[in-house]
Structure formats: C-alpha cells, structure tokens
Design a protein that fits this description.
This protein has about 325 residues and is an alpha+beta fold. It has a domain at about 1-135 and about 270-315: Bira Bifunctional Protein, Domain 2 (BirA Bifunctional Protein, domain 2, 2-Layer Sandwich). The chain is about 35% helix and about 25% strand. The chain has ten helices and 13 strands. It has helices spanning about 1-10, 55-65, 105-120, 140-150, 160-170, 180-190, 245-260, 270-280, 290-300, 315; strands at about 15, 20-25, 35-40, 45-50, 70-75, 90-100, 120-125, 130, 140, 200-205, 225-230, 235-240, 285-290. It has an eight-stranded mixed β-sheet with strand order 1-5-6-13-12-11-10-9, sandwiched between helices. Strand 3 and strand 4 form a beta hairpin.
C-alpha cells in the first residue's frame, strides 16, 4: 500500500518530503494531547520539545519557503489515544498539499488515490460490499444533520437553542459545556455510524468553530471549507482549503490557547515561524491528512487498528 501511495503521488508530480518527528512547538488544538519530551544538550541543559501530532506545521513552512506540491508519509503521535479499536498513540499519516487548489480539488485527489490503492471497483468490509465506482457522493454537514438527526443547524446556532433541541430528542447533554460539544454528541451518535457503509462519502462544510486552520466560506462564515472522508463507517481523513492570513491565524491560535487553559490543559506557545511562512506563501492551496492504518483496516476488512499494526501500543502495555 505504501508503494502504491508513492506511485500515485509520483505520477501527480508531487515531491516527497521528510519532516521532523520532534519539534519545539506543537498544534494548539484543545482536543489533542501531545507527547511532551525534553531535549538535553551536552551541558545537561534541557529544552522542551514535542513529538508531533501532525507534520502540518513543518510542511507549511516548506510551502512558505517555495516548495510546490508536496506529500509525506510519517509517524505521528497523540497521547491518550489507546483502545476503542480505531486509535493507537503512534500511527502512520499521509499528508499532502496541492498548490493552486481548494478542498474540492483535494476531494478529487482523495477519490483518485483510494481507488488506485484499492485496485478494485468494490471491496468487502464487515459483511457489506462497498461500491467504489466514481463519482463518490459529497454531502454537507448541514444536510446530514437534517437527513439523519432532523436538526437544521442554521436554526440552532447558539448553545441554549441547540441544547434544547437535543434534549427534546432525548439526548443526554449534561456533560456538554459548549455548542461544539453538543454538535459532536449528535454527529458521533446519530450520523457518523451511518456514513460510507455502501459507498464512500465526503462530508464537507463543517462549522467554522471546529477548524482553526481552514478558510471560512465567503458566502456564509458560519461554515468553513473543510471535509472529512468516510468509508465503511470509518473516518479516514481531514482536509481544508488552507488559511493563509497570518493575522487571522494568530487570533485563532490565541483562542485555542484560551480554550486549553479553560480545560486545564497546557497552553503551548504559538509557532511564530509558521505565521511568518503563511505571509510568504504566494499561492492558495488545499491539504489533507489521511490515516494510513485506518485505510488499511478497511481494505483488509480488519475490525481493529491493532489487526494491521505489528507493534500496537495496547499489546505493549497489556502483553
């Protein structure tokens, strides 16, 4: 599978790049818990470092330095993600960025890539046949909430209104502290398990509050240009039309820092070099981060991520 991925991007004239696994700054996403480590120099002085949860920041610095279409296959690290069948704290990520493109172009890339890697028009997963014939359906978050949950998000834009709507549907919202908490309660329970069971599906235009690195939509800033891709009920990737406004990006990072403080988590420093790189970027571009292990799970009809890893962490801590 790794060979096929590389062949696909070579044919598309992408350059494979290598990014560091260890970095002095880290993603501020409040939902991520990075591995914090110490780098010691010969004198014994220690420097705080992190095992990266994504190669995104490094790749965007390369783009700011003049690189064009690039991709990487690398290990990434997210602390606390053990168990549940879909998570391993160390996993393999494919990340790519296409110049002069937006998230719809990246949907095209994703469809072509996975069809090429699968090498078939159908696959069998968990007792069902998934039809890979193109084109794959594309559905907005707005229409999925109406279709599967009977909720119009445009009529439920604030926390009290959405909370009441969820309670009227007998959903337990007592643990939900924000609008986004309720959104994910509904999405993960009422919508996600039904996605991509018979055909792969792109889910696009997420609420802007959930995508600190994505462009908001010009016609309605409530939404942003982000998509996720589902196959066999598994979420396989997360993609954006990339934000290039350094001033706006800094505001979003600051908001994420405040949210981390509110949650009692470490408020990491903002990566100023990344902001500088955004100012130097001369072309719009789209990017995607795809979980290679999860894709392999679906293609091999595996029930757990441990089934496609030679050394899953769950076996290391529970031999």
């Amino acid at each position: 599978m790794m060979d096929k991925i590389r062949t696909f991007f070579e044919r598309e004239s992408f350059l494979e790049v290598e990014t560091p696994l260890m970095a002095p700054t880290v993603d501020l996403n409040p939902n991520l818990t990075p591995f914090e480590i110490k780098l010691a120099d010969p004198s014994g002085r220690a420097y705080p470092m992190y095992l990266h949860p994504s190669p995104e920041f490094s790749m965007k610095k390369l783009i700011g330095a003049g690189f064009g279409n690039i991709y990487t296959l690398c290990k990434v690290f997210r602390n606390g993600e053990v168990g549940g069948g879909r998570h391993n704290p160390e996993f393999t990520m494919l990340e790519w960025y296409r110049q002069d493109a937006d998230y719809r172009n990246i949907m095209d890339d994703t469809e072509a890539l996975i069809r090429f890697v699968a090498g078939a028009d159908t696959i069998n997963y968990q007792g069902r046949t998934i039809d890979l014939a193109e084109p794959w359906p594309r559905k907005s978050v707005h229409e999925l909430f109406i279709e599967y949950a009977g909720i119009d998000l445009l009529q439920n834009k604030d926390y009290p209104t959405l909370a009441k709507t969820a309670q009227d549907k007998r959903l337990k919202t007592s643990a939900c502290k924000t609008w986004d908490d309720i959104f994910y309660l509904i999405f993960l329970n009422e919508i996600e398990p039904k996605l991509g069971l018979d055909r792969p599906v792109f889910v696009y235009d997420y609420p802007a509050t959930q995508s600190a690195l994505a462009l908001v939509k010009k016609d309605d800033p409530f939404w942003c240009e982000r998509f996720e891709f589902y196959m066999g009920g598994q979420e396989l990737c997360n993609a954006f039309s990339e934000l290039l406004d350094a001033e706006e990006q800094k505001k979003r990072f600051e908001a994420e820092r405040e949210e981390r403080r509110r949650m009692g988590k470490t408020a990491f420093e903002i990566d100023e070099k990344l902001l500088t790189s955004l100012n130097l970027t001369k072309h719009p571009y789209g990017g995607n981060a795809l979980g290679v292990d999860r894709l392999l799970m679906v293609l091999m009809d595996a029930t757990k991520i441990e089934d496609v890893l030679l050394f899953p962490v769950s076996k290391m801590i529970n031999p």
